[in-house]
Amino acid sequence: MTEEGSSVPHPPEETRPKTSGGMSSESKALRKSYDQFMKGADPSSLVAPLYSQDLLTDDEKARALLDTQTNRKRLDEIFDALTRRVGVEPKAFLLIMQTLKNVPALKPMGEKMQELYNEVVGEFGCDSSNEHAIGRVEPSHSDSNSLPQLTSKEVQHQLRLQRSHFLYQAAVVKEVLHLLR
Question: Where is this region: Disordered (predicted)?
Answer without folding.
Answer: 1-35
